[in-house]
Amino acid sequence: MSTFRELTVGEITDNPFRLIGDDWALVTSGTEERFNTMTVSWGGVGIMWGKPVAFTFIRPQRYTFEFMENNEYFTMSFFDESQRDALKFCGSRSGRDCDKVKETGLTPAFTDEGVPYFEEARLVLVCKKMYSQFLNEESITDCESVAKWYNDDYHKMYISEIVKVLQKN
To answer: Which fold has domain 4-168?
Structure first.
């Protein structure tokens, strides 16, 4: 029996600025056989092309990048403060070098479609990629604010439809 119930995006009551910027999330992509996860604290949610979307940013050097590129779906899992150490670990270590699931004790779960997320999450956004593009220097209009974040290693932005919302019962 699932410990999650499905919500509509309109039923999410969390503040998205707090969720993404303060609480952080694990972005997870792959299959039941092979997946990776990483911590993110940049992103957003909104409406684009008439659909509820999440904006996610991943650097190409990150191991999760190859999973994002090779899979149509991913999840954003949000946790309570009891999982802060797991989030710190997943944001500072590469899945190329360690087994993040084993190291953190997080429990992988999978949607009916096989998209990975974690049982310990309190809120999960299941996302389907719609658009992706690398950020680039030519498009930056506020160089003073943005330049400190880059050394020619720009993130790739993914705009993705939120196709399912799962909330811990």
So the answer is: Pnp Oxidase; Chain A (2.30.110)
